[in-house]
């Protein structure tokens, strides 16, 4: 069975082509990706990457990518605790003013998210 990547980053969706990974792209916000990850943890998946992997604040980074295990039969309480804390942090920062971006900045932010998750994926596989 394949691990699952959920992302709102088009670069991750387009660049990660690994048979042991099942990439799911969603046109959702940063927070909504975390909420989707929480729903998956509730249904028995385990977080394989930390939901907050950099010092870039959620109000400055619109992209989020999370890797989860294939479905298990029980809820992983550590994963649930991590994702709930990440959601709380994201909500706090998303109440702050959003950073103005340009298409060039958007591309840079996509690359940052991709590089962060790519490094994590290499250690998982």
Tell me what you see in this structure.
The protein has 125 residues and is mainly α. The protein has one domain (3-124). It contains four helices and three strands. It has a three-stranded mixed sheet with strand order 2-1-3, with helices on both faces. Helix 1 (10-15) links the parallel strand 1 and strand 2. 30% of the residues are buried. The mean pLDDT is 92.
Count of β-strands:
3
Largest sheet: 3 strands, mixed
- Determine the N-to-C terminus distance: 13 Å
Figure out the total of helices: 4
What is the global morphology?
globular
Elements, N to C (H/E): EHEHEHH
Throw out a few tags for this protein:
mainly alpha, 3 strands, 125 residues, 11% strand
Quick structural summary:
The chain is mainly α.
Topology diagram in text:
Blueprint: E1 3-7, H1 10-15, E2 21-25, H2 30-42, E3 65-68, H3 77-94, H4 103-124
Parallel strand pairs: 1-2
Antiparallel strand pairs: 1-3
Helix pairs in contact: 2-3
């Amino acid at each position: 069975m394949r691990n699952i990547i959920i992302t709102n980053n088009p670069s991750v969706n387009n660049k990660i082509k690994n048979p042991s990974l099942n990439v799911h792209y969603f046109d959702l916000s940063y927070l909504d990706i975390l909420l989707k990850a929480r729903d998956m943890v509730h249904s028995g998946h385990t977080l394989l990457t930390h939901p907050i992997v950099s010092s870039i604040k959620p109000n400055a980074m619109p992209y989020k990518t999370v890797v989860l295990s294939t479905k298990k039969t029980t809820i992983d309480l550590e994963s649930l605790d991590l994702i709930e804390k990440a959601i709380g942090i994201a909500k706090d920062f998303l109440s702050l003013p959003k950073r103005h971006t340009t298409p060039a900045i958007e591309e840079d932010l996509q690359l940052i998210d991709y590089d962060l998750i790519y490094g994590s994926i290499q250690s998982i596989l």
